[in-house]
């Protein structure tokens, strides 16, 4: 439950732009979280695998948004939908994860 509070505190009203796209800061926060948890390789693998199905997942997410909002906060549901909206969002997250991983490795040396 502690992780949920940590992530929710980072999802401020400024997490989404007016056109429901993620802010650059949130991409960086998500990427840093994945790298800090040691999930760089699985995250990149999953995101690359998932890219072709973005449109389908977005449409499904819109359909089940009331259920998503019941299971998670409305802010989280909106961020999730913004992330899966198109392949560009996924590609941007992949780039941010790679950038954060490189910075983490350089900082460790």
Brief overview:
The protein is an all-alpha fold and 109 residues long. It has one domain.
Describe this structure in words.
- The protein is mainly α and 109 residues long.
- It has one domain (21-108).
- The protein is 75% helix and 0% strand.
- It has 7 helices and no strands.
- Helix 3 packs antiparallel against helix 7 (87-108).
- The longest helix is centred in the last third of the chain and has 22 residues, at 87-108.
- The radius of gyration is 14 Å and the shape is globular.
The total count of helices amounts to 7
Mean pLDDT: 84
Number of extended strands: 0
Question: Which overall shape is indicated by the principal axes computed on the Cα atoms?
Answer: globular
Number of domains: 1
Strand and helix order:
HHHHHHH
Outline the low-pLDDT stretches: 1-8
Please bin the fraction of helical residues. over 70%
Structural class: mainly alpha
How is the biggest beta sheet arranged?
none
Beta-strand residue percentage: under 5%
End-to-end distance, in Å?
33 Å
Q: Please compute the radius of gyration using only Cα atoms.
A: 14 Å
């Amino acid at each position: 439950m502690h992780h949920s509070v940590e992530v929710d505190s980072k999802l401020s009203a400024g997490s989404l732009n007016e056109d429901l796209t993620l802010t650059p800061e949130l991409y960086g926060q998500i990427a840093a979280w994945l790298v800090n948890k040691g999930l760089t390789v699985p995250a990149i693998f999953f995101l690359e695998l998932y890219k072709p199905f973005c449109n389908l997942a977005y449409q499904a997410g819109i359909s089940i948004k009331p259920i998503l909002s019941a299971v998670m906060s409305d802010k989280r549901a909106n961020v999730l939908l913004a992330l899966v909206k198109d392949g560009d969002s996924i590609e941007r997250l992949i780039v941010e994860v790679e950038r954060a991983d490189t910075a983490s490795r350089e900082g460790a040396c």
